[in-house]
Specification:
Elements lengths: L11 H21 L5 H4 L13 E6 L5 E6 L5 E6 L3 E6 L5 E6 L7 E4 L5 E5 L4 E6 L13 E5 L21 E5 L4 E6 L6 E6 L5 E6 L4 E5 L4 E6 L8 E6 L5 E6 L4 E5 L5 E5 L6 E6 L6 E5 L3 E5 L1
């Protein structure tokens, strides 16, 4: 039955050979487009000046590793999730905890703020993606209003209220067509697991962070990697990335407790932020681009500007 559609003279072996030949030709054509690297194009671009970024706030309240965080669109509030089984909504200006929810399991791996600011979502080892509506009444029992919107067969590692990014633990970054469910592009230049991806502000490219201690920049139009951010002195894996509002800076959190700032165009490191005492699990630039929040396994979040 598998060979029913074969034409005269065709065999499975011959078709496999033909497909391998076509794949080789496609790789050759793609290679012809790799005429210049991004850092070479950016040689005439002005070098970034000295950056003075300091910790402005330290949010303490979690009893264990902070695994994820997300900004609210109001540029003031943020939500964080932790291994202690709690989800906390913070006021980043006053450091006050506006809401705190305890989940029935530990390791709340992911959280997200709704664009409206009226709800947060979270998930983890309970295999569920749960949504909590927020209200002005801080004494309200949010757990009673919890709604499970999805049940997975294994733990939930990421959630968002917008179109989801692409990432995976097979060294691949895949781009999906949400209408057809088809994988339309794959990038396989990392040498170890990919921990995070983030779209460039224009939407034409994305960056990835990997356990191979590198961050890479992929252009969707060129269908290839156009830059790699690495140094011989960096030997620990990169766990998270985010872009500045302009896209000129790439913020990357690493397992050696640091946050490295990279010049996206020139591929050079322009600064290193120290302060956390354990692995940096998430970095996110505020919606207006004036602040950076980092979450860490040292049980704290830090606001930088």
């Amino acid at each position: 039955m598998a060979c029913k559609g074969l034409q005269e003279g065709e065999t499975v072996a011959s078709l496999k050979k033909e497909s391998e030949s076509l794949k080789k030709k496609l790789d050759e054509e793609r290679g012809k487009l790799s005429d210049i690297e991004l850092n070479q194009v950016a040689e005439k671009v002005e070098v970034l000046g000295p950056l003075c970024i300091k910790t402005r706030r330290v949010l303490k309240g979690h009893g264990n590793k902070v695994l994820c965080m997300d900004w609210c669109k109001d540029k003031r509030r943020l939500v964080s999730s932790s291994q202690d089984g709690k989800v906390i909504v913070w006021d980043a200006f006053t450091l006050n905890k506006e809401h705190a929810v305890s989940l029935p399991c530990t390791w709340v791996l992911t959280c997200a703020y709704a664009p409206s600011g009226c709800a947060v979502a979270c998930g983890g080892l309970d295999n569920k993606c749960s949504v909590f509506p927020l209200s002005l009444d801080k004494n309200e029992n949010l757990s009673a209003k919890k709604k499970s919107v999805a049940m997975h067969t294994n733990y939930v590692s990421g959630c968002t209220f917008t179109s989801s990014d692409m990432q995976g633990c097979d060294k691949k970054a895949n781009v999906w067509d949400m209408r057809s469910g088809q994988n339309v592009q794959s990038f396989e230049t990392h040498e170890s697991d990919i921990n995070c991806v983030k779209y460039y502000p224009s939407g034409d490219a994305f960056a990835s962070a990997s356990d191979d201690a590198t961050c890479r920049f992929y252009d969707l139009r060129a269908d290839r990697e156009v830059a790699i951010y690495q140094k011989d002195s960096i030997i620990f894996g990169a766990s998270t990335v985010d872009f500045s509002l302009s896209g000129r800076l790439l913020f990357a959190g690493y397992n050696d407790y640091t946050i490295n700032l990279w010049d996206t165009l020139k591929g050079t490191r322009v600064s290193v932020l120290f302060g956390h005492e354990n692995r940096v699990s998430r970095v996110r630039v505020s919606p207006d681009g004036t602040a950076l929040c980092s979450a860490s396994w040292d049980n704290t979040l830090r606001i930088w500007s």
